[in-house]
Amino acid sequence: MASYHINANVLLELLKQAKIDINQNIKNRVFIEKQYDIIISDGKKEEPPPQKSGKRGKYKRSKGLNLLERLEKHKESVLAHAFDPIIPFTNNLAERDLRPSKIKMKVSNTFRSIEGANHHARLAGFTSTLRKQNINVFSTIMDVFDGKEITFAQ
Description:
The structure is a single chain. The chain has eight helices and no strands. The chain is mostly helical.
């Protein structure tokens, strides 16, 4: 188990390297992909083989084996951030932007009207943009109520 855990740190190292020099990663693409393949193969050695659960049907696979198979199948997508500076390491910002709306829908079951949903989305998008631009949300909203024009730096 220890060798598998140490190899998994390769992905975190790729995150650090991608920020430093993407061109170096492109040159080392074959090496990076081989390291990734080693991680997958080591993981498959550590995971138990599928077990037959009944008389018919598919074999029952462990969650770890399912994850390894998905990582193997989507190798290009997982490693994309290492070779293209536009692709982020995670999609946390997108998920963070959607989460409050989904929670509101879960709690109240739905928005009362399409107009209310549109207002909520517009306000959420505005505040999210302010946060991403490192602009004080409260003072900017106060400026909007005072009738001041808001501009975002390019």
